[in-house]
Specification:
The protein is built from five helices and two strands; from the N terminus they run ααβαααβ. By secondary structure, it is an alpha+beta fold. It has one domain. A two-stranded antiparallel sheet has the order 1-2. It is globular. This is 13969_t:CDS:1. Keywords: Coiled coil.
């Protein structure tokens, strides 16, 4: 299962994100934690007035600087994950670099997006 939940990824993008999910699983990290944050905060007896804001970030340069920054940031995150992802993908370092270049193109060409959530609450007794 991809972090993007299949939100219009190309074949190379899917491989990269699936390998990231595999890396997270191997470290007992929850890929779906963001979907549980609101419930976790609501169950915290020290918090009240819990809110969740959802936004969709598109990987499109036509969206201006934000769209371009989203693509660049995604590629940079994956580049930084290279030591972890290389053994999972079982590719050479050069092939990985090529895949990261293709990732940026696929994100743009496939109208890929990432749903982002912001969850926050107020500590009880604070005004």
């Amino acid at each position: 299962m991809s972090l993007f939940g299949g939100h219009r990824l190309g074949p190379v993008s899917t491989k990269i994100f699936d390998s990231l999910c595999e890396a997270q699983k191997s470290r007992n990290l929850d890929n779906n934690l963001t979907h549980k944050l609101r419930l976790l905060l609501e169950q915290n007896e020290e918090l009240e007035d819990v809110h969740e804001e959802k936004n969709r970030m598109r990987f499109k340069t036509e969206d201006g600087k934000l769209g371009k920054a989203a693509i660049d940031n995604c590629q940079n995150v994956m580049r930084n994950m290279k030591p972890v992802l290389l053994p999972i993908l079982a590719v050479t370092s050069e092939k990985f670099d090529e895949m990261i270049s293709v990732l940026g193109k696929e994100l743009e060409d496939n109208d890929s997006y990432l749903d982002i959530s912001r969850v926050y609450g107020r500590k009880k007794g604070n005004i």
